[in-house]
Amino acid sequence: MKxxxxxxxxxxxxxxxxxxxxxxxxxxxxxxxxxLTLVEGLQREPLLAYVPNPLPPQTSDAQTWEPSEEVKQKxxxxxxxxxxLEAVSRSFILPPSMLLAPLIIEDIKLLNNPDExxxxxxxxxxxxxxxxxxxxxxxxEKFSIDTLAQWHQGIFAGPNLGYKxxxxxxxxxxxxKNDQKISYYFTPPHEPMMKCLRDLEVFMNEESSNEESSNEESSxxxxxxxxxxxxQFMAIHPFGDGNGRMTRFYATVFLVIQHYLSRPFFFIGPxxxxxxxxxxxxxxxxxxxxxxxxxxxxxxDGICVTANKLQTRMTEINALYQRCFQLLxxxxxxxxxxxxxxxxxxxxxxxxxxxxxxxxxxEPEGLWDIIIPMLSKASILDTAENKTLNSNGENSIEELWxxxxxxxxxxAPLFLDDDFE
Length: 421
What we know:
The protein is mainly α and 421 residues long. It has helices spanning 13-25, 69-89, 96-111, 114-118, 120-140, 145-155, 190-205, 222-236, 243-257, 269-274, 276-289, 292-330, 339-348, 354-360, 367-377, 404-411; strands at 2-4, 34-40, 46-52, 173-178, 181-186, 351-353, 382-389, 395-402. The protein has 2 domains: 66-172 and 189-313, Orthogonal Bundle (Fic-like fold); 333-411, Orthogonal Bundle (Arc Repressor Mutant, subunit A), CATH 1.10.10.10. The chain has a 3-stranded mixed β-sheet with strand order 1-2-3, with helices on both faces. Strands 6-8-7 form a 3-stranded antiparallel β-sheet.
């Protein structure tokens, strides 16, 4: 493990002794893809901060690291599952936001941050808006840290955070507890951090390869590159907070701009948060021992499991759509040419008033008087009351029609506890 003494400053003898003790306790092996640099604590005591080496990873004999056969096998499986998800999504009627929104809320709940839960409606709106803008921007521009900072600011536009969109100027410290042993991990200081970020830009803008590519300069499939980015960005930790959410956000953007998916339905956040201990352990495994394979297998498996769950959810919603279509088609009083517009109104606004539904379609008067009782009898629609204030400041009760079956499918947790037993 390399120790960089460029930041070395004269220190009292007791601190030199402390430094030797730190080095002896260091968990890093010779395979660690980074080096330690000396920084000062608040009392000028010596601290060791970790700085990751540039990507791509290198072997001990200075050769470019290659993924193992097990990683390559998992990569092939991941591509197949993403192709299947894309095939199902082509016939999916709902906009991506309706599938993503509950997953983002689920992610916030798992983070267990009460401040963000209070403002999660604003956070969700900002997130979805920034996601669409980010995909359009990423399709036209090269990867850059300035762009990520812009997205970071957009995602956290609502919360009153002083760090949003700003790169940190100080080291961050993280507590790790493994095998009853407690250790501390310091992120790179500002100057090495900025070099790491510039190196990351170079790596992410290099052309990726796949089975169809003849480019021999790069051996990394885009999905492998995404997994390497995940680790590197978390090791650098350039923002004061929200670094994990930025990697999850970028994963959704990446799968679209690399043409694995045509629309942003995918979100890996709940999977990583449900496996948070293993997630952190495997990231630490790269940092300490250079164990890229275990991390990448876990990461690719997360994509597979999430994609399978999303495919199942889409299939359920598509089946519900077909059931509603058949019910409407069998009713002779419903004009056949109106059915697609009726279903679009139902599926894109599953909880609304009759007046809002009728605004979606210009159809013969009384058509909804036929449709609503029929769907209610089939246990597809339920009623609810919405209390509002009218123009006179008096309480007003508006009847809402609720597409309960659709809402139940969309809002169900993507993962259940017994999924991982």
